[in-house]
DNA sequence: ACAAAAGTGTTGAATCTACACCCATGC
DNA sequence: GCATGGGTGTAGATTCAACACTTTTGT
């Protein structure tokens, strides 16, 4: 217990974004290099302070646009939760609202970026060293990846990793990369097609470098998957965000 | 777009709790009657301001204790997310971090309560009128109930609704009440027992008012359920907290 | 022809659902 | 005995996992 105990702590609120994509066969996250103190020169998730009169979701979309040039209305954007440990920001008491954004396989590093250097990096690299990212961004990223993995099971989230149209193989690659397990192409295809509203055939085909041309699909109207896509047992992890032992 | 647009909005942070239990065959939420403005006399979720140097989770546990007399370490407590729409609190800019707490079937209203009147109320009643609860607490409660329903499927959350020991019938009642669907007692029992680590027999029995005595169980070590408990198709709802159309 | 990727069919194992049936208690 | 809830057995439908096999392209 610290001694300071005035009620109504003076708090600043930031919004931070874990923007994930699948590139080069790996799950990658968009990082910026911090141009200012604290943590100057360190890699960090893009984000910034909440403005007066601004909604949280709007702030997330604005930061997305300012720092990456991406259009928030086209991306999946969902709140992950609040991170507010007292010592997480050396400037003072700062609570951040973390967001998970999913980007389709994008051109490259990112156009119109505000920050010194924005780049994609494989999440394993970012998570390998707990102090690789500024603040508690390692924790946030871990939460984001967990969430993305989980949501692939029960929702159609995987389709937003893909472009406007995509092949069954591309969609399957999303699952394989995010989950880190190989899936049977035959059974995968069958299951996706059988799940009502998951994907709809666009009527066109795409010629591959090799092999038979693949049917192109686009997102269907469904958001939740029933039955869910399975990735086998275990997976561990707390029930989503449990705080107390509760056991 | 509002005109005020200084960066670094001055914000206060509160913590609000949606405390759920199953009582009298219904899913109920703990409400207090507000003793101060704004919304004086209106029903609201318990909560209060974050203090200096205090962790978010610690604040949630403190409010739980202060306002309800419950011991946070014994309850399931998990963050739901942040709610921060600009107009949600007439006192100014207040972002709240909402928590979901699950309480076992408790004695009654609640001992040692701080607030004028704390009471349990069926969630349908609280949600029937969008303005029944103060602030945006209706939204928060809806999110909490959705989350609880979802977590019953994939986690052992149901056991924390029960006391230290419980019968299969009591555990089943949790599912039936929270989901609002009847379940087959025979299949339910079999499935729970087959899921490793969900429950463990305590070796004792409880004599009922009527019928054969029931075996008493206590929580097992598992936190996630595989395979999950199923409640049939649909359910609808956005993919958990999607913000943008993303479609 | 051959490699490579897209797809279809099939089969055995596991699971879900529904329900018949037995067990143990209070009245 | 009989009502009531706890609990086991079992059969048919559905789903899953694994893999043989066919289709369609580029080289």
UniProtKB/TrEMBL annotation, chains A, B:
SUPFAM superfamilies of this UniProt entry? Nudix, Winged helix' DNA-binding domain
* Superkingdom of origin organism: Bacteria
Domain annotation Nudix hydrolase: ranges: 4-148
* UniProt-listed Gene3D superfamilies: Nucleoside Triphosphate Pyrophosphohydrolase, Winged helix-like DNA-binding domain superfamily/Winged helix DNA-binding domain
For this UniProt record, give its keywords in alphabetical order, as a comma-separated list: Hydrolase
Keyword Hydrolase set for record: yes
Q: Does the keyword Metal-binding apply?
A: no
Q: What is this protein called?
A: NUDIX domain-containing protein
Q: Name the source organism.
A: Micromonospora echinofusca
């Amino acid at each position: 217990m610290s001694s300071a105990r005035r009620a109504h702590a003076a708090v600043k609120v930031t919004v931070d974004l874990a923007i994930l994509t699948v590139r080069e066969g790996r799950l990658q996250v968009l990082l910026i290099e911090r141009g200012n103190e604290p943590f100057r020169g360190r890699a960090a998730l893009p984000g910034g302070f909440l403005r007066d009169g601004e909604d949280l979701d709007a702030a997330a979309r604005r930061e997305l646009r300012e720092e990456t040039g991406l259009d928030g209305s086209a991306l999946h954007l969902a709140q992950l939760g609040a991170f507010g440990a007292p010592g997480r920001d050396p400037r003072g008491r700062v609570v951040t609202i973390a967001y998970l954004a999913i980007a389709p396989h994008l051109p490259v590093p990112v156009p119109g970026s505000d920050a010194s250097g924005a780049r994609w990096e494989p999440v394993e690299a970012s998570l390998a060293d707990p102090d690789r990212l500024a603040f508690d961004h390692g924790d946030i990223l871990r939460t984001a990846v967990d969430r993305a993995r989980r949501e692939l099971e029960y929702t159609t989230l995987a389709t937003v990793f893909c472009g406007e149209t995509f092949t069954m193989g591309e969609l399957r690659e999303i699952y394989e990369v995010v989950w880190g397990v190989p899936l049977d192409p035959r059974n995968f295809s069958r299951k996706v097609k059988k799940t009502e509203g998951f994907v709809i055939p666009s009527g066109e085909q795409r010629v591959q470098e090799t092999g038979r041309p693949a049917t192109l699909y686009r997102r269907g109207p469904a958001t939740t998957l029933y039955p869910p896509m399975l990735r086998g047992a275990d997976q561990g992890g707390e029930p989503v965000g449990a705080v107390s032992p509760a056991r």
